[in-house]
Batch of 2 targets.
Target 1
Amino acid sequence: MSYRPNITNVTKASSNDKDGLFEFIIKLADGTECRVFYNRFPEWKMTNISRLLKTPCPICRKDFICKCMDAFTPDFEGQMIGDKWIEKAIAE
């Protein structure tokens, strides 16, 4: 069974509106939390993603830093833009 991330909540952690840089905390349905960085100009683009070390990685089960979430960048971007999570997080 392959892993499919499902975003349940997004909060804005920080931003630099002048340069169009944003940091969001993403909560997934399986309890995993990730920190993602976005650049707004010329359009929304994810620049980095990292899993917060609160729970083991749902893919490799490591309890330390891993790069497993990088493989799911297109899934995260599709949900963030398609489900309008960015607009919801900025409006809060």
Target 2
Amino acid sequence: MSNYRVKGATGDWEVVIGLEVHAQITSNAKLFSGASTEFGAEPNAQVSLIDAAMPGMLPTLNGECVKQAVRTGLAIDAEIHRWSRFDRKNYFYADLPQGYQISQLYHPIVGEGSLLVETEEGEKVIGVERIHIEQDAGKLMHDQHPTMSYVDLNRCGVALMEIVSKPDMRSPAEAGAYVKKLRAILRYVGSCDGNMEQGSMRADVNVSVRRTGEEFGTRTETKNVNSVRFIQAVVEYEAKRQVAVIEDGGKIVQETRLFDPDKGVTRSMRSKEDAHDYRYFPDPDLLPLVLTEEFVAECKASLPELPDAKRARFVDVLGIPPYNADVITSDVETARWFEALLAAGAEAKAGANWLTSELFGALNRLGKDIAASPVSPVQAAELLGLVADGTISGSLAKQVFEAMLETGDGAAKIVEDRGLKQTSDTGAIDAVIAQVLAANGDKVEQYKAGKEALFGFFVGQTMKAMAGKANPQVINELLKKSLA
């Protein structure tokens, strides 16, 4: 149960949130035509005769899009409908050449499922009502000409999955956690790249408020929100706005709104239409979609290990701390990089700690993501191996890693070229210890009088005198003997 409440003049209010996430299906062609879906093309360069609604053009369903939708449904333990149907949603808009959008209102391909999300208040299961397949509309550009709007139909006909949650979320944090988890699953499955900046994943945010335990209030829908941070901002702003309206004696109108990210506010766009306003009817040019048991079984067999299962294996089998396992499995590219690190021979726990601290810190400084890491998993495994076998210390490993980032050389080469090998020569270490103790006679007396915390000081001074090249374990053993 979320503790999030909106403080009103007349008391506390609970926010109720549902999300409709539009995820562009990974495919090299559109839902009903062979036109390309590649991002960044010149305006209107990827428009087939079908997309442009030329007379006599009939849609042909892209089977890959069906497969990806089914795989997504299976990944969230949803019901897969063996029989589904396409409907026409009729409305006029300049970026919709057909005058209708082909969607699946009455018989979607995927039924109910659920997602387990983690928030600061604990775990929560959020229901998914349905996933249906539909085609995207084009895009209107209002800033290209002083008096006219331009239309780009490249996105027209692009295949989308609309993933509709139940109104189960009760805070901005829960909404953010849901979108992050859904995005992670889509990227693991490979059914959507989850790139919100490029518009391949965006959300319509439904928000209403109520007194705790009362009936749901009237909701508003804020369209096309394209980042987790903005989704959370919409929830926060809309909840406060609605409470203020109700407490001032007004009524919430069911409407469609837009979010202004610069001002952090939503504004009214149009009154919210109901299904009958769109005059839905079955698409006469498309047969119902019938899935065989063999097809569904093939889709299931093609699924990879998903984030929750991978996290459980990392913690229970490999002994990786839960926090590190969360970080690594939350992104598919990071998980793959880590698996490659293990395959190259790195020890799991040490590898996880190094990845989430040293590598992430370096990538953050360099402004790179893990896919563009200058150090490969094989090179990282070599570095960690040199620490594990005592060739270099942990502190020397940091120096070697920095050199690897600068030069691209392997760890063993850098250690050899720069003479950074750790020494376990007891004679040489004993000689330095003797010098350190002789130079700090007063601290030796204090240590022997019971101030045991000084032991770390002696270790540090010895390491400093040997330029970090002495084996810390050997220093500890020899110091204990010298101070006994």
